[in-house]
Design a protein that fits this description.
The protein is α+β, with helices and mostly antiparallel strands. It has ten helices and 13 strands. β1 and β2 form a beta hairpin.
Length: 299
């Protein structure tokens, strides 16, 4: 006689949460997001589940996850024009993990982690960030250097809701400081010019108001901080460069992780740990914005 297999009954706390299905009225106007590399378009809230799971540690407080959900939803709708254009699942846009990727990443913790993320999505369903009744460009990053970057400092464009604010608690982030080193041969492979050891004594770094490198000058050569970050593949534009003549190594120290504009994810977590709500977090990092629920039927 074969063995009798009984499927386990999940307790209430173990049951898998699902994004709340839209009502009949919502379904008639439901927004779908086309993600590059995915075979089918994805319902907006399902897509946001995959973004929050990819972009923010699931260990973070729910209010931080909710802030991330609202920012990610706003960014997605702005970038895709409410689902009319595709979006890449990359760091340059928004990273997205489908369900199979989340299962692989979380393994035995999948049900609990999924439940936590989906609760954050459901509790913010449809909420977006507006400035003058328009969707904002809800930029976010992992860790600031203690001060977020303004849109002007990043791109030269002054955007009222993307101003520099203090984010001192980011110093507790595991990504706050980093150091990398290269031999001079390795270093020269990364640049459009060839450096000599003596050149490191002639470097001039010009910093902006948020403490990030605005430009690096070496003789007649000038590069922006963003260009240097791209050349070197370093985490931030808050950097210093030192050449050690004894070891013949170039050392670059950085503070922060990411472009620094908009919401700091580790800053959001610190605020959530201090009892701040998602709304308070968002109003801090994005100035003079409103949080509203979209009416997809009007789009």
């Amino acid at each position: 006689m074969g063995a009798l297999y009984v499927l386990p009954v999940l307790g209430l706390s173990e049951r898998r949460e699902e994004v709340q299905p839209p009502t009949a009225d919502e379904k008639a106007c439901e927004i779908f997001i086309e993600v590059e590399g995915q075979k089918e378009k994805i319902p907006l809230e399902t897509y946001i589940t995959g973004v929050v799971a990819a972009e923010m540690p699931v260990s973070f407080k729910k209010e931080a996850l909710k802030a991330q959900a609202i920012a990610a939803r706003t960014y997605a709708l702005k970038t895709t024009n409410y689902g009319k254009k595709a979006i890449a699942p990359t760091v340059a846009r928004q990273v997205f993990y489908d369900e199979s990727q989340r299962k692989a990443n979380w393994a035995s913790n999948f049900l609990g982690n999924e439940k936590k993320i989906v609760e954050a999505i459901n509790e913010t369903k449809g909420q977006v960030l507006l400035y003058n009744n328009d969707l904002i460009t809800a930029m976010f990053h992992s860790t600031s250097n203690g001060q977020t970057e303004s849109a002007y400092g990043y791109s030269g464009n002054n955007i009222p809701y993307l101003q520099s604010v203090a984010s001192i608690s980011d110093q507790s982030s595991p990504k706050f400081e980093a150091e990398q080193e290269w031999s001079l041969v390795q270093w020269n492979k990364l640049w459009p010019i060839q450096w000599q050891a003596s050149d490191f004594n002639r470097i001039q770094l010009f910093y902006n108001d948020s403490g990030r490198v605005e430009r690096l000058q070496l003789g007649n050569n000038v590069w922006t901080g963003r260009e240097v970050r791209t050349f070197l593949g370093i985490p931030s534009t808050d950097f210093s460069i030192v050449y050690n003549s004894n070891t013949r190594k170039v050392h670059v120290k950085t503070k922060g992780y990411g472009h620094g504009v908009g919401m700091s994810q580790y800053g959001a977590e610190a605020m959530a740990n201090d009892g701040k709500t998602a709304a308070e977090i968002l109003h801090y990092y994005y100035q003079d914005i409103e949080i509203k629920k979209i009416d997809a039927c009007l789009k």
